Every structure is written in structure tokens, then in C-alpha cells.
Amino acid sequence: MFTVIRYSLRNSRGAVIGWGIGLAALAIMMGSLFDMVASSGDLMSAYVEALPEFAELFDMASMNTPIGWLDVEYFSFLPLMIGLVATGAGASLLARDEEGGTLDLILAHPVSRTALFWGRFLASTLVIIILLLISWAALLLSMTWSENFTIPADELLLPFTSLFGILMVFMTLAMLFSMLLPARRMASMLAGMLVAVSFFVTLLSGVVDELERAADFSPLTYLETTAAIENGLNMTWLGIFTIISLGLAIISWQLFQRRDVRVGGEGTMRLKDLVTRK
Amino acid sequence: MTSDHVIKTQRLTKSYGKVQALFGVDLEVKKGEVFGFLGPNGAGKTTAIRCMLDLIRPQGGTIQVLGMNPQAEPEAVKARVGYLPGELHVDENMTARQVFRFFNRLRGNRSDWGFIEELSERLKLELKTPIKNFSKGNKQKVGIVQALMHKPELLLLDEPTGSLDPLMQQEVLRMLAEAQGNGATVFFSSHIISEVQAIADRVAIIREGVIVEVAVTADLLNRSLRKVRIRFQQPTEAEALYKLPGVELLAKDDGLGILLQVEGEMDTLIKTLAQYPVNDFETVRASLEEIFLAYYTGEEGN
Predict the structure, then answer these.
(1) Nearby residues of A197 by Cβ (< 8 Å), 6 or more positions away
(2) Are B154 and B184 in contact, with CB atoms under 8 Å apart?
(3) Which chain A residue lies closest to B51 (C-alpha atoms)?
């Protein structure tokens, strides 16, 4: 399994470097801008009074605190961006190699489907953890030159931990789709759409009453940012997301265990083929 | 399963949706032999091989590879098998060396690196070049080296010499002969008849998912169709010859010459021919290719 993890990580180098630079730049920019926002407290208050619904939508009243600022300007959009990375990683876990034809030869070697699946799963999980840690470290870095932007490192880790739990749900969902649907891009697109829907439902539920009920089913509703720092992480939700992710991963693993490996290319949509057989 | 059978399939069936790929395939491959699996594209060769490696699951029948069921013990089977897929796909950003290193690690570092270099050298394979810069033939060489590098007991090769130039084809056939000499069993599919004829001890011919013939290659050639050209000393109506079982008149000229096609033993024909004044007698044995084509045009298959 170690070889599988190692080579999967090697193949993810480009994605980690590219996304890592982008996410780090975003975090540094957000951290660096806080001093300017903090020094414009009166203007922000006037802005909130002038546009109360917009301010409520993004919880702008708390923007003059470091975590409030991150909540509005960083954690509101980060889940969408990194969520799409997670769904891409989940959908590609095995389907990319299968469509490329490389899975055939790898599985002809004495590596079990179980080892391959969980090795790849662990590697993808590591990639997400690395990207979150890069973001976290970049925010900490921006604190070194900011006068007002200070959050203890361990406390800042809590929102990222909460986000990690949710990202794992999206990743494993994409993984499951890739086992059920005939094409990786179809799985990636469907899971990506769910991330986007979750993002907008959660965002708009604050101002659109009709979406409040739907928001209960949106994973991003349970992302804890300010609350995690002020009250500590809600371990119940983290546990629930972990259990859901593991459940989805186990179903995907079982599907992979029993399915025929294609020689290459995309499959076809035949629902009866989804019934596993041994 | 008797101990000298390295592969044994019984009533193996496999379908892809509505397409039935294998209809009750029975195969027995003995230890140490080179077994050619002949058939055109789509006949079921690749499907049968992929079932043996548990890459796909048959709907019916049984498979034993090296005395094990590949579905029950896939890793144990694959540890002792070298596989070359019909279409080789590897991570093209890797060099050949990196590919071999990766596969060697998946096999628990069992391969001797000196042997890998020796195989690569014989095939004139550049180890430091990324695969994406390779021609189709060079990619095929990568596949051949990775299949042979751990000196497996059984080689499952799907079209091993496809994409290779004639010189390299000969080199690969030599490598397979050497592997056999070292005790390996070679099971290879092909539609290049000449290579099957050159190295296979036995052959199976598969047609639309059904095995239509399994035979020792030499026997198949011996008992197969021959063309017999006879020249008589004088115009002769040799009707007795045409009526013999397995004999068919193909051509007749000026009453002196006839061309017959004979299937099976020549003994009866020669004894019958002794009644006639013969000036010249010439036989041409059909190549394996002609036999193969005969199966596919239904001449013998029926």
C-alpha cells in the first residue's frame, strides 16, 4: 500500500503545487488586507447600516475582528474552491486510471484492489490535508507583518478542521459517483454541482426563508468558523461527517472490489450493470 | 486439476451486457509449454486472459491458474504471472526506468535490476526517455520487459509482437523461448499466424467466443488440408480419387492434370492412386494461416 500512496502522491504533485500556490496567495492577501479593514471601522459600520440585508448575508457586522473578517471574506468562498478540488480528486481516484487504461496493468500486479483503493484514498486525503495546511500556514504567515490580524495558531486550525470534515464528504461522494457512473467527468461534474448547490443554499438561506429547510441538508451549513474559535469545535458534527465519509468510502470500495475493470475509455450508462456480481 | 496444468478453464462464459464474449470456453495449458491462442479481433482472446487475472469476472464456469482460483486468490496468482495487455497504457510522464521501478515495487522488489537492463538492452529500449516520447513499438517493448522482468512462472501475453518490427519480433520470440527453457509456461494470444507456428507447442483457435480447435501445432499442420497436384501419363478419369473421404477436386486440366484438396491422412489417396499411371505427384501443406482461415470461413469449423 505504501507504494500506491507514494506514487499517487507523486502524481498529485502538480495539483498540490498549483492549488497550494493559489490558496496560499489568497490567504496571504486576506490576512494582509485586514489592517486596512480594521482601520476603517466607521466606514464598515456605515456600510452595514446602509445595506442591512447584504450585510446579513455575509455577516458583515463582525468584519472588524480577525475571525469575523476571515468568516466573511475567506471561509465563505474557500469551501467552494477547495470543494471542487476535493470532488475532482474523489472522481479521479480510480476512474482516471481506468479511463486512461493504466489501471489494467497495475491490477495485473500482485496488489489487491483493497490496497489500491485505500492507498489512493489515503493519498487523496493527504492532498486535501496538505492544501488546508498550506492555507492555514499562509494565514499565519500574513500575521507576522499585520498589526491587527492575530489569531492563535491552534485556534485558527479549528475552522480548517471543520472544513476538512465537510470536504471528505464531498470527496467520497464524488468517489462513489465515479464507481456508479460510466465516466469520471460525469461523476466530477455531478459532485461539483452538489458543492455549488450546497454553497449557494447555505449562503442564501440567511436571507431567503424558503431555503432555510434546504440548508439543513447542505453540508456547508455545518461549517464552523467563528463558532469553532469562540466555542470550540462541535465534535458531533465532525463525527457525523467522518462517519458519512467512511460509509461512502466503504460502499465505493465494495463496488470497486466487485466490478469489471475496463481496458480503457469511458463506460456506458446501463443501470443493470451497476448491480455488482462476483 | 492435474498438477501439470498451469491453466484450466471449464465452461467459461462472459458477457458484456447483451454481447456474449465467451461461450463455455474449455482450455487446458500444460506446464512448460508455449500455447498459442489464435483468433481474430473480437473473438474473445483478451476477455479470456483478463478473466485469468481477475480483471474481469466471468458469469459462469471455473478458472484455475497455477492451481489457484484467480477470484479467490488474485494476488497469489498475479505474483507468479507476467502479463502483457493487448494495448499497453502506462503513466506516460514516467521514463521506462521509473515504470519498471514502480512495477518492481508493486511486486515487492523481486526483480533483478541487471536482468531488466539486459532485457532492455536486447530490445534496444531507452530507459531514460519519458514514455510519452516513445513510438508505439517502443511502448510495446516496455510492456514486454515488465512482463518478463520478474521471471514469472506463467506469461500471459496478449498480442506480444504487435507494433514491433520484424527484427524485434524475432528477439521477443527468442526471449519467450528462453523463458520456456527456464521452465516458464507461455500463453499468448495472436493473430499473427507465423509466430504461433514458429513457437507454439499447441494452439487453440477461438471463434466468436467458442474454442473450435485445440491441437498440437505440428499435428494440426499434419492433419490439415493439403493441396495435391497430380500429373498422369495419359488422359485419365480418376473418379475414384474424388470420391475418397476428405478429398475434393479443385481443378482439372486437359485430362492429364488434376488439383485436389485433401484433408487428413494421405494413405488412402496414395493407395488408390497406385491404380493409375502417374507421371508426377506434388503436395503442398497448408500453412497454419490457411487452416486458421478455413476455420473462419467455415470450411473446417462446420
Answers:
(1) A218
(2) yes
(3) A260
Nearest residue of B to residue A269, measured between CA atoms: B17
pLDDT at residue A57, as a whole number: 65
State which amino acid sits at residue A214.
A
CB A129 within 8 A of CB A42: no
Mention every residue, 6+ apart, whose C-beta is less than 8 A from residue A165: A237, A238, A241, A242, A245
- From the CA of B153, how many Å to the nearest CA of chain A? 14
Q: Do A260 and B102 touch (CB under 8 A)?
A: no
Minimal Cα–Cα distance from B95 to chain A, Å?
14
Distance from CA of A1 to the nearest CA of B (A): 9
Give the E-state strand segments of B112-209 in sequence order. Answer: 154-158, 185-190, 202-207
| Residues sharing a CB contact under 8 Å with residue B282, sequence separation 6 or more, in sequence order | B228, B229, B230
CB A246 within 8 A of CB A122: no
ipTM: 0.78
Tell me the HSE value of A28 on the side-chain side, using a 13 A CA sphere. Answer: 12
The answer to whether the CB of B242 falls within 8 A of the CB of B253 is: no
- E strand or H helix at B101, and its extent? helix B96-106
The pTM of the full predicted model, rounded to 2 decimals, is 0.81
Map residue B214 onto helix, strand or coil. strand
Chain-chain contact of B53 with A3 (C-beta, under 8 angstroms): no
Cβ distance B209 to B41 under 8 Å? no
Nearest to A63, CA basis, from A35, A29, A27: A35
**How far, in Å, CA of A134 to CA of A126, rounded?**
12
- The span from the CA of B233 to the CA of B246, in Å, is 25
SS (H, E, C) chain A: CHHHHHHHHHHCHHHHHHHHHHHHHHHHHHHHHHHHHHCCHHHHHHHHHHCHHHHHHCCHHHCCCHHHHHHHHCCCCHHHHHHHHHHHHHHHCCHHHHHHCHHHHHCCCCCCHHHHHHHHHHHHHHHHHHHHHHHHHHHHHHHCCCCCCCCCHHHHHHHHHHHHHHHHHHHHHHHHHHHHCCCHHHHHHHHHHHHHHHHHHHHHCCCCHHHHHHHCCCHHHHCCCHHHHHHCCCHHHHHHHHHHHHHHHHHHHHHHHHCCCCCCCCCCCCHHHHCCCC
Max Cα–Cα distance, chain B, nearest Å: 75
A80, three cell numbers: 467552494
Instruction: Give chain A's largest Cα–Cα span.
Output: 68
Instruction: List pLDDT tens digits, range A122-131.
Output: 999 999 999 9
Q: Measured between alpha carbons, how far is A133 from A24 in angstroms, rounded to an integer?
A: 10
Tens of pLDDT, residue by residue over B169-197, are: 889 999 999 999 999 999 998 877 777 77
